[in-house]
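Batch queue: ligand-bound targets. Current item pairs a single chain with zinc ion. No template structures supplied; prediction is de novo from sequence plus SMILES. Inputs echoed for audit trail.
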Amino acid sequence: MKEIIKKLHKLNELDIDLQTLRKDLERMPKELAEKEEEPKLLKEQIERRKADILKLKMEADSIELEMKAGMEALKRYASQLNVLRTSKEFEAVKRQMEAQRGWNSENEDKALALLSQAEVKQKEADGLNTKLEEVEQVLALERERVDKDVADLTKKQNDILTRRAELSKDVPGKELAIYDRIVVNRGQATAKVNKGFCSACHMKLPPQVHNMVLLAKELVTCPSCDRILTAE
Ligand SMILES: [Zn+2]
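Prediction returned. Tokens below.
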């Protein structure tokens, strides 16, 4: 039985390594996925800027059309001035021309304001693009690193699984079943007896339990934490 317990202890070391490997293999792609969020957000922000710029330019275009129409109107008024008979009519057209000039200049200001807003948005988009390139570069290295680590850990995991399969062939089914039940609940499935105490849960063991561990004729488990006890 001492040999079997030794093998179970070895098996448990492998299983604990496997647990750590599994956790790392789960964690690393998750962490990478979190980092992949940053370029996504940056791309969204860039797209929003682009949409804003398009809208501003379209508004500026329509105002420019109005300005052109305004210039045409001014020309028409100017030609009317040549054919007018009375000074009253002349003054009326002059006033309309003044008003038209005012609207035209207002429209020009509006168009310029829209274009300078578009320019600000363009600068923001350029800055975001630079940031995106930097983030993509860092991420490319990170992806490479994670791929390599995952491959290494997977290979390690497979090696351990092979050793585990070999080792468990030598453990009788009854003892293996007890071990398998404990390892699922506890992870650490074996515990040394240390001066009459269980080294895992630190409970004082009843003397007969301690004796059974020393005799090692069968598997003895800790009455408190259920781990397989091995002699000190
Ligand atoms: Zn215990």
